[in-house]
Amino acid sequence: MNGFGGHGWGMGWWWIIGLIIIIVIVWMVVKGMNQSNSPGQRPGKSALDILKERYAKGEIDKQEFEERKKDL
């Protein structure tokens, strides 16, 4: 049995597999939270809505608004 309880090499590597699974789960949770909370990504707003907001705020003039609206 060589002091390994009859399992040989394999039993010693299970903690690494468990650690990898935990890291993947944490990474997925963090990635999901970042996507749902990131500023600038507003669900439900179309490109035209954003363009209208920029025009209303004065960030773009009427000519640029009309040109970009045609492109959309």
TrEMBL record:
Annotated membrane-spanning segments are: 12-30
Q: Which InterPro entries match?
A: SHOCT (IPR018649)
Q: Could you tell me the keywords of this UniProt record?
A: Membrane, Transmembrane, Transmembrane helix
The chain positions of domain SHOCT read 47-72
On the tree of life, the source organism's domain of life is Bacteria
The keyword Membrane is assigned to this record: yes
Q: What protein name does the entry list? A: Electron transporter RnfE
Q: Which organism is it from?
A: Sunxiuqinia dokdonensis
Q: What is the lineage of its organism?
A: Bacteria, Pseudomonadati, Bacteroidota, Bacteroidia, Marinilabiliales
